[in-house]
């Protein structure tokens, strides 16, 4: 029994699953990086949203002026939200896709293109690059997730 | 060894897991659809948030007037955020629930009600339908996720 | 065949996976709780964002005055978004970590610290506690997820 239980957790020995784990971790870490960039801009631009965050700048009006929005902070936050909207479906559908028995080469193609597209998307958003850089990188990542969802539904379909 | 490894990835052969994969993919695709609807309203209402997105409308003041919020765009964005807040817990808790060994019929009941409720929620938000349509469809989906979490905690509890 | 299939879904019998399921369900339920707190403040502060939500307060101007933002509502919403930004990576990376074969004691340490940190973060945000309470509890949770990602990448790395 113990042997069987151990075996059933060895998903991580499967090559497609290892590739999924690698790329899912990378894109989730990339998404987490957005929090640090937001914090960096909030501190350097002195633009906060919670009164308790400005207490170290003194009391009253002197601190209150730092409760403001800043275009750079808002831009990073939009990039972060866009990551949530796109990386969450990738991680969820990608897991099901990895378990649906794709070829390693097809799986790597999907994971690599998605990850590359989302890294480009972040640069396109933060620099910012002229359009359609951001739009195209978004569309490429979106299409990859859609393609994986198609494979999942074709393999698993049970309504 | 190879045979064992392959076997351990055959979760997708399990009927409850197949049902989970089907419904999780459907609700994640529905959530992704919100991005397209937002883009549609941004373009048709000419309401953008990034200066680089309005460059094709010309330079200076003529483009700047399209950097504005639009009630329809904001409505879709709220629906999208509500999806993130509710579909993410469903996908995460639903995976654990599917692995906790429920009957296929119970699992299908949970997955179908959640998916139906979230589709209704989207229509109720975007049309919009009078309340309590949106509130009720939200509450039904919320309760289904809660019920699955109860089963997961009852089965897996190890604190 | 049937026996094998059943076996492959018995992840829930693995102790590390059971611990993961328990803590993932707890933090996802905690995140879902933010929706109820938002609803509570919207109703008690009478601060709504959708016109159809104020219909029960009458028609025209008398209802329109409740379409407003409220500092308490906005605070809960920021806490909710922060949960999405941090709990989603924990749930995703934590699953991969649980499947990467960690010791039960290491796994429990990671899961317990993260869960404790996020519960503290919520109290720090909602009360609010003076900084650096919220900042520190955020950083602790962030570091735990980072540590799990390191283990996942070290175990699974296949680029």
UniProtKB/TrEMBL annotation, chains A, B, C:
Top-rank lineage group of the source organism: Eukaryota
One GO CC term on file: mitochondrial outer membrane
InterPro entries the UniProt entry points to: MAPEG-like_dom_sf, Membr-assoc_MAPEG, MGST1-like
Record has Membrane as a keyword: yes
Recorded GO MF terms: glutathione transferase activity
EC number: 2.5.1.18
Location within or outside the cell: Endoplasmic reticulum membrane; Mitochondrion outer membrane
Catalytic reactions on record: RX + glutathione = an S-substituted glutathione + a halide anion + H(+)
Keyword flag Mitochondrion: yes
Its membrane topology: Multi-pass membrane protein
Coiled-coil blocks: none
Keyword annotations: Acetylation, Endoplasmic reticulum, Membrane, Mitochondrion, Mitochondrion outer membrane, Transferase, Transmembrane, Transmembrane helix
TM helices/strands, residue ranges: 20-41, 84-101
UniProt cross-references to Gene3D superfamilies, sorted A to Z: Membrane associated eicosanoid/glutathione metabolism-like domain (1.20.120.550)
Principal subcellular localization: endoplasmic reticulum
Stated family: Belongs to the MAPEG family.
Subunit structure: Homotrimer; The trimer binds only one molecule of glutathione.
Role description: Conjugation of reduced glutathione to a wide number of exogenous and endogenous hydrophobic electrophiles.
Protein name: Microsomal glutathione S-transferase 1
UniProt organism field: Nicator chloris
Gene field: Mgst1
């Amino acid at each position: 029994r113990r042997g069987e239980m151990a075996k059933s957790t060895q998903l991580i020995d499967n090559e497609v699953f290892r590739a999924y784990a690698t790329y899912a971790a990378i894109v989730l870490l990339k998404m987490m990086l957005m929090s640090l960039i937001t914090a960096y801009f909030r501190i350097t631009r002195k633009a906060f949203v919670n009164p308790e965050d400005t207490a170290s700048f003194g009391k009253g009006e002197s601190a209150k002026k730092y409760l403001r929005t800043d275009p750079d902070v808002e831009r990073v936050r939009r990039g972060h939200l866009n990551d949530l909207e796109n990386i969450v479906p990738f991680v969820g559908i990608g897991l099901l896709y990895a378990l649906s028995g794709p070829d390693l080469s097809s799986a790597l193609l999907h994971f690599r293109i998605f990850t590359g597209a989302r890294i480009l998307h972040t640069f396109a958003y933060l620099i910012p690059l002229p359009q359609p850089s951001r739009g195209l990188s978004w569309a490429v990542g979106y299409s990859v997730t859609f393609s994986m969802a198609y494979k999942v539904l074709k393999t698993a379909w049970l309504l």
